[in-house]
Amino acid sequence: MFRNPTLGRYIGTRFLVAILAVFLLCSVLIYLIDFVELLRQSGKNGDVSLATLALIALLRLPAYAEFLISFAVLVGSISALLQLSRKSELTVMRAGGMSVWQFLRPGIVVASFVGLLTVVVFNPMAAAGRVAAENIFAEAFGRETNLLRSRSGASWLRQNGTDGQSVINAAMATNRGLTLHGVSVFIFDNDGHFVERVDGKRADLHEGYWELQEAWVARIGREPEKFDTYLVSTYLTPDRVADALGTVFSVSFWELPALIEVAEKAKLSASRLRIQYEALMSRPLLCAAMVLLAATVSLRSFRGGGIQTMVIAGLVGGFGFFLLSEVSRQVGVAGLAPPWAAIWLPVVLVMVVSATVLLHQEDG
Hints:
SH3 type barrels; 17% strand
């Protein structure tokens, strides 16, 4: 890969250290912001111990920080190249006959490896941590809104079962929608007449029924009764519930192919799952593209001036790319473009543009 392996390892190490430093700094800021928000939520809605709040923030930190991987690679690469340029190390490399592609190669390899590692290791860890945080949050805050989900109100499900129709209202859905908290179920008979209302602390979906814990059952003309467990029949399958209430960010990379296959066999929309899968698959290439984008604004000599302007231009270009990627992602989720096109085309575009700019800067 490199005529001088020692030099290649040195450059790769500089890239890796800079990327990790940016990622850790952003992660610490996210953790502190999230912890402060949890403190505010605790003071407003209940008394929760600091240890529990710290644990919730720590468990869901990977899920939040995962969105910063490509940004950390971009900023870290800019920082690494600027450090090499400031110490005239890039000038010495150029004088030794090295092209820009040669001293960028270790950075591209490191960034691609970081992207691959986040997909196969970090993403499953983030998904598991998010599910665990949801469960702890539900136990600590009861019926209050789950901060991992958007503040769009409670979740509603209309379903049929062997006992008739029912409508389920849940204050919070966790475990990809398979566990509900703060549940109210309005049950009707087969003729559509109201039968009873069931309020439970928690409901878990099993094959053919919901199992409610600590349930109060109210019927017309009768005193409310309390049951430790109460069953409500349903024809809903775990796949349909997960599609309605779940979030793709709680699904591990390794689980996505099977879920996509099941959803398609059940004639359900799998666009969100496919978009998420393609996004994860493209992450190594995306991280490599961020190195090329960083190089377009970081190779100018400090003596020539204008470094600050170039760096700001690079960051603006990076934010523009992230905005374009999100717009393209939403187009794919809406079904207006194939999932592979919605995810891969912006990545290929930034690679082509960055490579073209580098060729123009180096060869004129």
